[in-house]
């Protein structure tokens, strides 16, 4: 991409991006505001619907309780009429009790029945106009209306009343005369001696719509009202047993269809009970717990993976409760419509903004293109000159032009080319010196009988002043092996050159007759000729080992003592000796020290101070104590593994900090006898 194109795009971005970002931020803010508004509206609508549904279910449950009290009073009157008929031995007439109850209650009694202990029965329904049926009892007569082979003594309400010896509620029950599902209230009747001789009962229609249905549209057109039996044994595992329902399927009055009729029922109740249960049965457990305590409550629970609002309350009839269920989506429908309207308005505003933005881009584009043309010529000149410079033409220059800033840039470029030429030449020289230094470091150590050796040198710059070497057959004697570790003061190219010179002198001296001190003294004299007055010097630890003779000799010229660890004694020993660095005083004799050759398992470390003087992130030094600990821990390993353990411990201590000094280590052990 050309400079002109880049500059054009830059100007365009600086002009357009701020406007675009501001617009996007405004859009994002509006969306957040709309989302918050919708969320708050939904929360408010749900809270309002919950309160309304709770009030509805509690009012309807209270109505049921009051109607129940009226039915109980009616049944008491009916029981008195039956007992009077039994005492007078006259035909039973139940219409009096029915007429008494009707004005006091909105519930229409759909059947009255009395069953005697001998199996005879008498009944009256709202449409029958009074009368009785049965045979062989004290109140026989009238037109029969009972089903064939009907035995009221097998009815649940009969058995419960006789067992409880008092008034009981039973639901759901099918009236044997009207075939309608209802709730039955029954009580025993006695002869003049007080002995129970039968049961009389009322059957009220199970209509659960009523007032709740009248107000349901305020919440949801799809709200359903259920009458449930929450004391059914299977409620906890299968759900609330539905006794009656109003809502999407309204009960009908003709007794032929709908959940309120007996069309789908057996003679004494539901053949296959319907259940009302949330997807999460733990929610059902909470509902059952509330109803068991006689509490009304409102909750949210899913049915078929859809969220519903549940409102429930005990009805006052034992074991029965009213439950209102409405889809949450209907409750929050107004908030959803508001959200849709807001999104539509935002979309319209966004389209208008895009139109204005497109026009603005066209204007800014033209202005940016014209401005970029006036600035590109000096830049293109610099670009072409830079290309030439990159190809190695250090004579490339530009004619400064294009205003004060561009002219200054041109002058800087012209002055940069000669400096870059010098830097390139210096870099090449450093690369060559680094390669020479790398080649002077032994790539591998010779295999010497009776010795296990490992060594490495790590420079802190491209070239370093540390070095090590191993020279077999020193002084022309095959049993003697010379090894050394040297450290030249300073770093960089000059230190590397001095180390290369010293290494050459040491190799030459080790090949001549004499001993260790003669070699070091000769090298010192030669180095003094090169370093006189420069302030440069070199420390050296020079060792001649003769495992076959069981001895080793060394000279320490200003270098740190070697460290020897004996696992058998768990003791450390330093191989020291007097001696000053090389290249300081020309006429100087050096002391030779000696000791027995290494015992099996002993470890000898010759190293430069770059190891123990290395500093960690907190400024503390690695120290020789850590070196000794690593030697103690790894003394049973081979020399190469001991070397690796030392460098690994150093890396962990420094935690990625760059090296400040060269590190050179040589590890020496006595080879196992089978390898000797």
Give structural notes.
The chain has 676 residues and is α+β, with helices and mostly antiparallel strands. The chain has 13 helices and 23 strands. The protein has helices spanning 3-88, 95-101, 156-164, 210-216, 235-238, 281-292, 328-331, 333-390, 404-440, 493-510, 516-531, 623-634, 639-654; strands at residues 111-116, 121-124, 168-174, 181-190, 196-205, 224-229, 240-246, 265-266, 269-270, 275-276, 297-303, 306-314, 320-327, 451-458, 466-471, 481-488, 538-546, 551-557, 562-566, 571-575, 593-596, 603-607, 663-670. The strands form five sheets. It has a six-stranded antiparallel beta sheet with strand order 10-7-6-13-12-11. A five-stranded antiparallel beta sheet has the order 2-1-5-4-3, with helices on both faces. It has a five-stranded antiparallel beta sheet with strand order 14-23-22-19-20, with helices on one face. The two termini are 69 Å apart. The relative contact order is 0.07.
List keywords for this structure.
alpha+beta; 676 residues; six-stranded antiparallel beta sheet; elongated; 23 strands; five-stranded antiparallel beta sheet
Structural class: alpha+beta
End-to-end separation in angstroms reads 69 Å
Q: Which strand order does the major sheet show?
A: 10-7-6-13-12-11
Q: How many whole angstroms does the radius of gyration measure?
A: 55 Å
Beta-strand percentage?
15-25%
Low-pLDDT segments, ≥5 res: 96-106, 127-144, 247-271
The best one-word shape is elongated
Largest sheet: 6 strands, antiparallel
DSSP, total strands? 23
Q: How many separate helices?
A: 13
Indicate the percent of residues in helices.
40-55%
How confident overall, as mean pLDDT?
79
């Amino acid at each position: 991409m050309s400079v002109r194109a880049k500059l054009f795009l830059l100007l365009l971005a600086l002009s357009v991006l701020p406007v675009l970002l501001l617009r996007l931020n405004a859009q994002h803010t509006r969306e957040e505001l709309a989302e918050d508004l919708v969320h708050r509206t939904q929360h408010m609508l749900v809270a309002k619907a919950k309160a309304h549904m709770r009030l509805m279910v509690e009012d309807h449950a209270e109505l049921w309780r009051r109607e129940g009290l009226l039915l109980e009073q009616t049944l008491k009157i009916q029981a008195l009429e039956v007992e009077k008929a039994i005492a007078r031995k006259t035909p039973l007439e139940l219409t009096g009790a029915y007429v008494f109850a009707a004005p006091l209650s909105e519930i229409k009694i759909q059947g009255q029945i009395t069953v005697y202990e001998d199996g005879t029965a008498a009944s009256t329904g709202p449409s029958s106009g009074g009368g009785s049926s049965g045979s062989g009892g004290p109140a026989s007569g009238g037109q029969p209306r009972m089903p064939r082979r009907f035995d009221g003594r097998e009815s649940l309400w009969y058995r419960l009343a006789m067992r409880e010896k008092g008034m009981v509620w039973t639901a759901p029950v099918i009236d044997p005369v009207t075939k309608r599902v209802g709730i039955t209230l029954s009580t025993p009747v006695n002869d003049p001696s007080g002995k129970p001789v039968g049961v009389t009962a009322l059957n009220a229609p199970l209509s659960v719509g009523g007032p709740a249905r009248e107000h349901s549209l305020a919440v949801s057109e799809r709200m359903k009202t259920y009458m449930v039996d929450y004391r059914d044994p299977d409620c906890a595992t299968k759900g609330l047993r539905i006794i009656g329902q109003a809502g999407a399927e309204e009960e009908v009055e003709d007794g032929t269809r709908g959940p309120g009729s007996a069309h789908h029922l057996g003679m004494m109740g539901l053949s296959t009970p319907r259940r009302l249960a949330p997807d999460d049965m733990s929610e059902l457990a909470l509902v059952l717990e509330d109803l068991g305590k006689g509490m009304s409550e409102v909750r949210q629970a899913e049915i078929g993976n859809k969220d519903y609002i549940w409102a429930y309350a005990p009805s006052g009839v034992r074991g029965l409760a009213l439950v209102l269920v409405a889809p949450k989506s209907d409750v929050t429908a107004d908030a959803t419509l508001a959200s849709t309207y807001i999104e539509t308005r935002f979309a319209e505003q966004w389209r208008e903004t895009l139109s204005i933005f497109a026009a603005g881009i066209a204007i800014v584009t033209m202005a940016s293109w014209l401005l970029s043309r006036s600035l590109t010529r000096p830049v293109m000149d610099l670009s072409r000159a830079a290309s030439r410079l990159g190809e190695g033409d250090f004579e490339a220059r530009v004619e400064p032009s294009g205003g004060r800033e561009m002219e200054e840039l041109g002058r800087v470029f012209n002055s940069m080319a000669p400096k870059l030429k010098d830097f390139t030449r210096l870099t090449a020289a450093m690369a060559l010196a680094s390669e020479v230094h790398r080649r002077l470091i032994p790539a591998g150590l010779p295999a010497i009988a009776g010795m296990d050796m490992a060594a490495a040198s790590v420079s802190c710059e491209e070239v370093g002043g540390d070095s090590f070497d191993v020279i077999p057959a020193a002084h022309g004697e095959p049993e003697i092996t010379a090894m050394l570790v040297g450290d030249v003061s300073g770093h960089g190219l000059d230190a590397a050159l001095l180390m290369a010179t010293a290494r050459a002198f040491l190799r030459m001296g080790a090949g001549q007759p004499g001993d260790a001190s003669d070699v070091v003294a000769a090298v010192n004299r030669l180095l003094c000729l090169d370093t006189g007055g420069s302030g440069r010097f070199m420390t050296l630890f020079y060792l001649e080992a003769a495992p076959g003779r069981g001895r080793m000799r060394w000279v320490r010229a200003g270098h740190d003592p070697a460290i020897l660890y004996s696992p058998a004694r768990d003791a450390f020993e330093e191989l020291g000796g007097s001696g000053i660095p090389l290249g300081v005083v020309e006429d100087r004799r050096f002391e030779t020290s000696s000791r027995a050759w290494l015992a099996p398992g002993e470890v000898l470390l010759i190293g430069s101070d770059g190891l123990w003087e290395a500093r960690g992130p907190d400024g503390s030094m690695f120290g020789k104590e850590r070196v000794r600990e690593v030697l103690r821990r790894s003394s049973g390993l081979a020399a190469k593994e001991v070397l690796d353990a030392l460098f690994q411990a150093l890396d962990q201590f420094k935690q990625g900090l760059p090296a400040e000094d060269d590190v050179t280590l040589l590890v020496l052990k006595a080879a196992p006898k089978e390898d000797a």
